[in-house]
Amino acid sequence: MIALALRELRHRGSQHTSSLLVAIITAVFATMVIELETVLSVQSVGGQFVSHGFVRALLGILSVLFLFVAIFVACIVTANTFGIIMTGRAKHIALLRLLGATSRALRGSIAIEGIVVGFVGSAAGLILGLLIIAGTYQALVDNGTFVPVPINLGTPLLVTPVIVGILSTAGSAWFGSRKLLSASPLEAAGHAQEPSVAMLRSIGARNRVAVLVMFFGGFALLLAGALIGLASPLGVLIAAPGGGISFLGFVLGANLFIPPILKRVGALTGPGVSSALASANALRYPARASRSTIGLIIGVTLVTMFTVAGQSFVAETTPVANNAGAASGSDKIFLHLTMGVLDVLIGFSLVIAAIGLVNSLSLSVLQRRREIGLLRALGFTRGQVRRMVLAESVQLTIVGGGVGLVLGVVYGWAGVLAAIASDGHIGGFFWPTIPAWIIGSIIAGALVISIVASVLPARRATRIAPMRALAAD
Amino acid sequence: MTASESTIVASARGVGKTYGTGEGVVTALRHIDLDIERGKLTAIMGPSGSGKSTLMHMLAGLDTPTSGRVIVGESDLSGLDDDQLTVLRRRQIGFVFQAFNLVPTLTVMGNVLLPFELDGVKPTAEHFARVRTLLAGLGLGAMEGRRPHELSGGQQQRVAIVRALAMQPSLIFADEPTGSLDSRSGREVLSILRQSTSEFGQSVVLVTHDPVAASYADRVVFIADGRIARDVAATDAKSLSEIALDLEVRA
What we know:
The structure holds two protein chains of two kinds.
Chain A: H1 2-11, H2 17-44, H3 53-88, H4 90-98, H5 103-142, H6 159-176, H7 178-181, H8 185-190, H9 205-229, H10 235-252, H11 254-265, H12 273-282, H13 286-324, H14 327-367, H15 369-378, H16 382-420, H17 436-462
Chain B: E1 8-19, E2 26-37, E3 41-45, H1 52-59, E4 67-72, E5 75-76, H2 82-92, E6 93-96, H3 108-118, H4 125-137, H5 153-166, E7 171-175, H6 183-200, E8 204-208, H7 211-214, E9 219-224, E10 227-233, H8 237-250
Parallel strand pairs in B: 3-8, 3-9, 6-7, 7-8
Antiparallel strand pairs in B: 1-2, 1-4, 4-5, 9-10
């Protein structure tokens, strides 16, 4: 088992590049969250942030929350990556199974690969994270933002990023390899090529009801909270859990919500056979399409929600603050700072989600080698193949960005309405402030992600020779 | 006489193909000269590894020869780049493969019309009528909305034949089209290919190692060891089988 894992790692280590990258990013993030607390407590002694105990606590809670979000997204991506690696190894695995290797032993060896990748990645991430923090701290001291207090970054808590990295990578490896390795040897050989029938129902009836109840029930609570918020600040106590439950319902029921949206978006990349095939393909494995967009949706929803809530808050309270004096002014600066920090934190999960998209498209190409060979034989030019992969990428990112944007605006608006609309100075209902830059940057970001994500898979796809379709095996 | 009136639809002139370099060089084809006649069913026979598939790849513009020239219709393939070859395949060549002929995400109709769509041609009412007649003729009339996985192997092969015929290409290549079918479906597929030459004047090249399949052809070309070993007119499966056996024994 161990020998098998080590041989794979030694000879084909490069296939773990993206899992390693994801483990590094997650560990950098975890390290930063841990050290953020240290930095803030050191700085609050004699620093300028003493009065912001409440904001500090809030920042602490939010950064831990986002760490969990990042870990969740990282797990989805790594599980997908291992699924892809398994597909690439299908023939080899089938051979080992035929020769008598148990699926248990093979999965064990995959888990060991996961542990090694997780350890190397998170250890590298830990070191990188510490370097970034030490460097940033020094820079902030130098430019006078921070008071020059020496800081000790060493804390026992720093084992957490490594443990989290190992557990999430190994667990995802185990989970991601389940389909292929639990198959019989002959099935395992068959998995190398496209399964003939799409797995349409990957979510059970009971779960479907539960997910729908969570999403719509949570949404009803959110609305109720916002309405109550018009009269009393207690509305936020109903709106916040409502929003959380409905978003969790959406994430868990991604298989249910995303494919229908994807179907409608399919028409957006224009007529033509490349686009039509891309759309049909994205819908062929609804579960995979959902997994590859959910990371983007989570990231974009959170960024949009905090931006809309924050900007609406600033827009509505500025006239009030001007009357009330300077104290609120410094709060406003701190709010901006907090929002900036949050956006950076959420950016981590967006980067991980983008890696996930690349993987998902690569798998799509890998599994369709014969289909692409057939298309090439029948007269698909390399350019048309490239356009097909790009169209699939664009469709997936449009769904991720669009859904995230809509959900984020609704959650952010409802939340801020519930929290401050009852304030006497504001006087009830107001429309959300949606800054043009957030929409612009999400569209630009989605465009960049979809193009960048399609480059590697498209290159792979155009290299497939048309003779592929003729090969009998 | 211009090429379009000629009785020759495709030809190979001194075609050779080697793979690899230095010590590991493998010669798949050695100086093949071959003319494929218009409106005829030509079978290319040979044991596995004889080079028959390589020859077909060359004639169909799927691969480029190391030496010699291939001419399909009026085009000399040696001067064409990948995109030009692709467009040539799209317009002038139809394919029926042993398996995995159809795009799984498209319906029967979508698969049949795929070559038109690849070419950016909106199928006209005339095209549709022709395709429907072809589908109905092959017993697929009620299946145009089905997906490949809902069809039997024989039905899938027939859809592939309709797709190949729909564009009225210069030449159809059928590579072991009966290889994964039971004998009855196999015979049906062969009769259809045979009919397409006699009724529509379609030119078909059938690549096979099966003497029964080759017995449907007007002419059988035997390839052995990268060369044309025999070139015989239509005959029965028994004689073809004897020729094949004879070549194997001598090899």
